Amino acid sequence: MDAIMLQEKLVERLLCPRVRTARQKEKQYVGFATLPNQVHRKSVKKGFDFTLMVAGESGMGKSTLVNSLFLTDLYKDRKLLNAEERINQTVEIIKHTVDIEEKGVKLKLTIVDTPGFGDAVNNNECWKPITDYIDQQFEQYFRDESGLNRKNIQDNRVHCCLYFIPPFGHGLRPVDVEFMKALHEKVNIIPLIAKADCLTPNEIKKLKDRIREEIDKFGIKVYQFPECDSDEDEEFKQLDKELKECTPFAVIGSNTVVEARGQRVRGRLYPWGIVEVENQSHCDFVKLRNMLIRSHMHDLKDVTCDVHYENYRAQCIQEMTSKLAQDNRIESPIPILPLSTPDVDTEKLIKMKDEELKRMQEMLNKIQQQMHDKDQ
Amino acid sequence: MAATDVDVFSNEEKRNLSLGGHVGFDSLPDQLVSKSVTQGFCFNILCVGETGIGKSTLMNTLFNTMFENEEASHYQNGVYLRPRTYDLQESNVHLKLTIVDTVGFGDQINKEDSYKPIVDYIDTQFENYLQEELKIKRSLFNYHDTRIHICLYFIAPTGHSLKSLDLVTMKKLDSKVNIIPIIAKADTISKSELHKFKIKIMSELVSNGVQIYQFPTDDDAVSEINASMNAHLPFAVVGSVEEVKVGNKTVRARQYPWGVVQVENESHCDFVKLREMLIRVNMEDLREQTHARHYELYRRCKLEEMGFKDTDPDSQPFSLQETYEAKRKEFLGDLQRKEEEMRQMFVNKVKETEAELKEKERELHEKFEQLKRMHQDEKRKVEEKRKELEDEMNAFNRKKMAAETYSLSQPLKKDKDKKNRSVKTENQSGVSASSSKVMMAKANVEPLNCQSWWQAIQCCTCLVHNAAWKPEGGIF
Q1: Nearest CA of chain A to the CA of B450: how many Å?
Q2: Which of A40, B260, B291, B435 measures 20 to 30 Å from A223, CA to CA?
Q3: Record keywords: DNA damage included (chain A) (predicted)?
Q4: Residue A331 lies inside a defined structural domain of this protein
């Protein structure tokens, strides 16, 4: 309200036919400092959406973690397959969509589940259904974006993929490496160490170093946190640095609430102690939640839109135009500006020259063949 | 053999007699024990499980020593087995322990063939023993028995059920070796989850017909404990070689921020049960089962493959020796036949090649003859042409002479000179015309297949210059 009144005063002054003799150096308040508030208002009204994919072998705790992250139960009445049914299982893609609200902010959350990944005995190309799904979403958005009526575009693109690495090994396994390499240019991958309650702090550190090393070695581009601005305060920078050194996060999830130290917390009850999910010294769950939801959710969306989707789009257009140049009859689903084609006469000339060259080539070949025959 | 011996015994009457005093044959078991102690024992364990699941750590924990072990990498191309033999001693009992590790199990993307190296290894050990048994000069008491007595199958603690690879592998192994499934890294499963997990695993094994090792309940002394242990399968174990101070004791445990998992605490994990069952109670039974059941099955299958039977069609006892002789003869006969066949084939091949070569030779000869003839022809033609040319030249010279003498004998007049000169030039052009005609005639003689005119010219110039026939490209 203050700003509006000030604005009005300003307008008055301008319209006043008073000569601006006094060159007052007082600070004039324009008022666009309210822009963030306006953005906030509008976005609350519009609501947000976020698509999260979880991938990893069965039994890694993916569903439990998702439930712990969003404090809901998405996986009621889930049917798990037996071992013999999984011998030849193919990967399915299952989407769960929920609408959740907090302090007036609405979020349409879509979880894309990949049951069956890595479960069969022969896992050759088991990531193909997943890459196909992601490409499909990109294509869908591409068409919508290029359509005539763009008012209600549904954004189903996958913004983030949480990949669960089993803690039982010594590092990344071949199937992990292949999966991440197939997807790192299509989606933001965040690798996690699942079921971290089977590792002591030393072992966690060793495993994290190992995994970071192997990710570098294989050239996998996982999601990088954006650099913080140089004018942020030291504390923030420190937190940011700690966060980056903690990747990949070692997480523990839980569906049950237990009593620990007089409080009711989400945790796992063991005969030798209680693991609290939200205890920073037990696991990195809090860091993951802060990063994923509280600070970097929008950045994940931006990177998906600006980097992965643009790459896909550029590639798609390139393929289409090269095809068009070859065959004029291909119908393009999107309006493409025609390339500068050479005019008809020069084309004819080129064609004639081409044919001549071909003929001469054939004659040469025939002569060579005959010489060869007579020689032997 | 054995059948006839038993018959003899059962016909006789067995009488139970009571002893008047202490004879002393109740020390027989002790004699047996002291003999086996001096001989030493031997035990072979096979550990099957994914890389990093805790096989080496569990072995270290079980036997309370540090067996040297490097960490395996995840990027092996296939599964291979790594046997290591150690000599252990406790009190005065010597144990030759062999631990076989599966390296690279479960790491490949395509795991369809992962079970094969394991099955092959087990079969090889059986085969070695069989060979030793069938030898003429054998020393079974001295033989280092490498047959696998127990296979510990490490199941990953997912909490849901068995993995598909586990099921497939266990089905292939259950008829060859005693399998005890264990849940590795069990400190990641809470009590209630563990209960459900165990039930799920056992039901899956039963429904798929996998026969795991059951602790024997026929011996009264251990039947009770064994029966109760059978109900606790699969054992959920935690391994550790690090020591942690708990209270005022130092125990082997894993230290977490939220507590300490003690390996030998029965309420924390089933390690103690596993050790009891595996080492303290049933080790000997495992060896016996391997020999009496699995090895005998293997031996029977192998010998049946070779065609041996216990009784021939007439129900007369079969002599191994006769069978062996028959087999040998058959084998030698086979060998001879194969040799004959190969020889035959070789001879045929040689004949064929010879015939081909002869044919080729004949063709070449023919070609040569043909070429020679053509050459002769051409030469003759060239000669003729030359003769013609010479004749014409001679004729022309004579005419020239005649004309000259005629012109000399006549008074020289200008127009006549002119005429003569014109005649001369005429004649010259005529000569040149005739020579070109000759050339053209020559050119027309042969139907040239030249592709271009310059080749034709080349041929003609050859004709004229060399009077020899050089085959330029495209002439024949």
Answers
A1: 11
A2: A40
A3: no
A4: no
Rounded mean pLDDT for each run of 10 residues along chain A, 376 residues in total: 65 55 57 85 84 89 87 71 76 85 85 87 86 90 83 84 90 89 90 90 90 91 77 75 84 86 86 87 87 83 88 87 70 52 70 87 87 79
Check which CATH number belongs to the domain holding A99 and give it: 3.40.50.300
Structure tokens at B185: 């890294």
Closest residue to A82, CB basis, from B112, B204, B476: B204
| Statement: the pTM of the whole predicted model exceeds 0.80 | no
Task: Confirm whether A19 is domain-assigned.
Answer: no
* A363, part of any domain: no
Query: Is A190:A221 a contact under the CB 8 Å cutoff?
Result: no
Rounded distance between C-alpha atoms, residue A309 and residue A315, angstroms: 10
This complex has an ipTM of 0.73
Tell me the CATH class for B33-306.
alpha beta
From the list B452, B448, B451, the residue with the least C-alpha distance to B440 is B448
B111 contacts on A by Cβ (under 8 Å)? 121-123
* Within-domain flag for A358: no
Select from A63, A75, A80, A82 the residue whose CB has the most chain B CBs within 10 Å, as the one to mutate to test that interface: A82
Contacts of A371 in chain B (CB under 8 A): 473
Number of domains observed in the structure of chain A: 1
- The DSSP element (H or E) to which B246 belongs, if any, is strand B243-246
Which residues form the domain of A286? 40-73+83-115+127-144+153-325
Please list, in sequence order, all residues whose beta carbon lies within 8 angstroms of the beta carbon of residue A251, skipping any fewer than 6 positions away: A61, A65, A192, A193, A194, A196, A283, A284, A285, A288
